[in-house]
User: What shape does this take?
Amino acid sequence: MASYSDLYQTPAKRLDAFVAHNLLPDVEWKKEIKDVFRRVENFLREQCFHTPIFLDREVRVKKVVKGGSFGKGTVLNHGSDVDLVIFLSCFSSFQEQSKLRGHIITHVKERLTRCRKSLAFDVQGITTAWTSRPRSLSFYIQARRRSKPIKVNVLPAFDAMGNLAPKEKPSPQVYENLINSQSKPGEFSSSLSELQSNFFKHLPAKLKNLLRLVKHWYIKISTSIRIHPHTVLDKHVFRPQFASLQNMEKVKAKCPKIFLPPKYALELLTVYAWEMGTQKAEYFRTEEGFVTVMKLLQDYENICIYWTTNYNFENAIIRDFVKNKLKKNRPIILDPADPTNNVGEGRRWDVLAQAAAYCLKQDCCYDENDEEIQSWDVQGTRNVKVVLRQSGWKNWTLWVNPDDLIRRMKQKIRQELELTGQLRLTFQDPNGERQLLRGRDTLAQYGIFYRIVVYLLETFWPEIQIFVKGPNNHIKVYAVDPDDYIHDLKEKIEEAGGFPVKSQLLEFQGQRLHSYKTLRNYGIQDSDTIIMSNC
Assistant: This one.
């Protein structure tokens, strides 16, 4: 595979050729990989669970699917592991997977050790993670004498999806079960691996090549950090240094381990940059996409990304869970297949940001006139569709970035609708409460990252706004003068489609409101809520 320095010395206009010549898997290696997958799959199906009963239950291989880069179609030439996700009948739930997975892995390891000759390959280095509950079994296969060993990872998983059609969304119950399992973030991502693969499967070939380029950059960065981690902590410049293999272990022993974000995080960030920067165009300039990703990495503290491909905000349990996730410290990149998994959490993004800053100064980010390649116009958070409703007016739609101050949204509304009074913006929370959007806040602070209906009320001094909650917990907002009579308010409610004046019963703080007293008489102030019922 091409070296890290080769990438930096490649002119921007040659990046497509760099990918084609160095990163795309060659035909022979693809054949090796397919053969490895086929042989290991046959072993898992035919030899591994040769007894009908294991762990006091039937263990049957339901299906084996490609995970990781092979499942997503973004494999690097001679540079990717082979992940096999094995779905077993003995796992009836996420909890069962957690409970039994370690036993399954131990069993597979024992069978593989005994039957390794039947694979017709040289199997080496059979290991599991050093945890009480390992998630996978890893080993190396020497497919051919002159080839490098290929790392294989076997991940036992619960078949949460069943026979889901490729373009069909999972049932919300799947995610409810996942959330209720109260597992560690990403604990059961292997069960959702098919959704991860489907997310990438139909992306344009050119985008997959950009993904390969970003992954190649990441691998070389992470390799240099493992060899010389102190070099990337320099505040001013990132200068990767490569030690000899003989000294690698000595250096690693002296230097603390640095946990970088996973490659998957950069893959998702690249897809997001393409979606926002090109509007999902099939053809684009690779160098512009690469520069955009580098600049997003520099601005990692403002990254908040999610998708509604497989889960959305319609289900209350999922909505509340995802909203809480999106309120966490940034960067946030939610796995489009697994809402529990923020792949951007708890890692050294600052190190990648330094590496990206250094990369942007290299030849690969400059054109033939020695001018910087321009990035796409991509913000760290996708815009939210806001539907604006005002009594007596047609709905008006605008797109707002959740991180922008609501004051800016008000300014835009004032200009577009030519309003002169005081603008009051409110929204009805899915839990039933009406909330006032304060100008000094952002939509993100209210947990608003999805399509929202915002109600606009224009008031003129001395008017105030009040909320009226009906029997169905639906709340409407009205502009009233504090010296208006309660009867005047009742008439406004009827005009807005509410109960007739004679059948309205209004209460404030447990006190019934009489028609010929004023709002001021009852101490009703701006943004107070009045309860309405039908008498």
About this structure: The two ends are 79 Å apart (CA to CA). The domain at 4-365 is CATH 1.10.1410.20 (Poly(a)-polymerase, middle domain). Residues 205-227 form the longest helix (23 residues).
